[in-house]
Specification:
43% helix, Rossmann fold, globular, SDR_fam, alpha/beta, 250 residues, binds NADPH dihydro-nicotinamide-adenine-dinucleotide phosphate, single chain, Sc_DH/Rdtase_CS, seven-stranded parallel β-sheet, binds 2-hydroxyethylsulfonic acid
């Protein structure tokens, strides 16, 4: 059976993607900081698939390399990497945003993603096969007030994915950036630091994407033939579009 490594599998897109691939019988490597959630996930999925859990903060370069360079066979042959771990913190304008929040987003969404990618890529290169799916965001290309550093980290993900494609020319390794729009997960609870009431307001009277929608998208991408590479895939709920440019007296 093939092996999939999913970062940020303790909730949201990552967790549901783990469930989807467990149903296919794949070997799973699931990671995240909350070890109790990983333990519960393993208990839930173990009847269907081999589940290997790694408590891992993707920001910690040494931890990432130590964990991913010492995987037991056959898990050291990763077929699909889902770079999903990430977060938004705060929605203040740039002059008022919390600088620590900015650093945490940069460290997680950029440094964490490149740490994991760099740790896994040599093995894929050696096998001349593999698929890296990065979770970007519509925030990369659609500026919105308060999206400042979060959107910029996702713009990095977009360009990094394209640059990976050019570096991987002449190999069978694929790379895709999925850019989801509004999706209801723990995302807004994290963004608003546990304020569930404020998080709920984000989705009030709307039908946002679900984690299942994104897991299904990942499942579809992985099922495409090896000679097909979807470079970029933007997915919004039908209730969402772009706001357009705006002007205001100043
Ligand atoms: P969730 O908050 O539900 O899940 C985020 C996951 O990332 C958790 O499993 C969390 O695990 C993990 N994570 C966060 N920081 C770290 C870290 N330092 N090291 C390891 N794991 C970490 O949100 P989503 O499922 O919605 O988000 C998944 C991805 O999708 C993110 O990259 C997000 O930016 C992106 N996205 C989300 C959208 C949305 O509207 N929901 C839309 C577009 C993109 P733990 O806390 O256990 O470490
Ligand atoms: C999450 C989507 O629009 O809240 O990446 O930034 S958005």
């Amino acid at each position: 059976m093939p092996t999939i490594l999913i970062t940020g599998a303790t909730s949201g897109f990552g967790r549901t993607t783990a469930e989807l691939f467990a149903n296919k019988g794949w070997n799973l490597i699931v990671t995240g900081r909350r070890s109790q959630y990983l333990k519960e996930l393993k208990t839930t999925l173990s009847q269907k698939a081999a589940v290997h859990t790694i408590t891992l903060d993707v920001r910690n370069t040494d931890e990432v390399f130590k964990a991913l360079e010492n995987l037991p066979t056959p898990l050291n042959n990763i077929d699909v990497l889902i770079n999903n771990a990430g977060l938004a913190l705060g929605l203040e304008t740039a002059d008022q945003a919390n600088l620590n929040d900015w650093h945490q987003m940069i460290d997680t969404n950029i440094t964490g993603l490149v740490n994991v990618t760099r740790a896994v890529l040599p093995q894929m290169r050696k096998a001349n096969q593999g698929y890296i799916i990065n979770i970007g965001s519509i925030a990369a290309n659609t500026p919105y007030t308060g999206g400042n550093v979060y959107g910029a980290t996702k713009a990095f993900v977009d360009q990094f994915t394209k640059n990976l494609r050019t570096d991987l020319i002449g190999t069978k390794i694929r790379a895709t950036n999925i850019a989801p729009g509004l999706a209801e997960t723990e995302f807004s609870i994290v963004r608003f630091k546990g304020d569930k009431g404020r998080a709920d307001q984000v989705y009030k009277d709307l039908k946002p994407l679900t984690a299942q929608d994104i897991a299904n998208t990942i499942g579809w991408l992985v099922d495409t033939p090896e000679h097909v590479n979807v470079n970029y895939l933007e997915v919004m709920p039908t209730c969402q579009t772009w706001a357009g440019v705006t002007a205001k007296p100043n």
